[in-house]
């Protein structure tokens, strides 16, 4: 989900599935292709220096409006194999 919090801005919320999420990272959202910087990461109203797999977190992003992000979007590190939408796939 994505929330707009007064005085803070746009806050996407979700679970870290793989890798880590840190303030200062540049992330890309798929399938929208939006790239932005993570300003802060919080879990249960406490700031984190790093979120690890399994953590349910909210993270503040720069210069992205709530209307640009939707539920189900995937965020990934834009420097290391950023997420992309699949053109097609074959089911077994």
Automatic annotation (TrEMBL):
Location(s) in or outside the cell: Cytoplasm
Translation elongation factor EFTu-like domain location: 9-74
Pfam families named among the record's database cross-references: GTP_EFTU_D2 (PF03144)
GO CC term (a single one): cytoplasm
InterPro entries: EFTu-like_2 (IPR004161), Transl_B-barrel_sf (IPR009000)
Superkingdom: Eukaryota
Record keywords, A-Z: Cytoplasm, Elongation factor, GTP-binding, Nucleotide-binding, Protein biosynthesis
PANTHER family, alphabetized: ELONGATION FACTOR 1 ALPHA, TR-TYPE G DOMAIN-CONTAINING PROTEIN
Name by which UniProt lists this protein: Translation elongation factor EFTu-like domain-containing protein
Origin species: Bracon brevicornis
Lineage: Eukaryota, Metazoa, Ecdysozoa, Arthropoda, Hexapoda
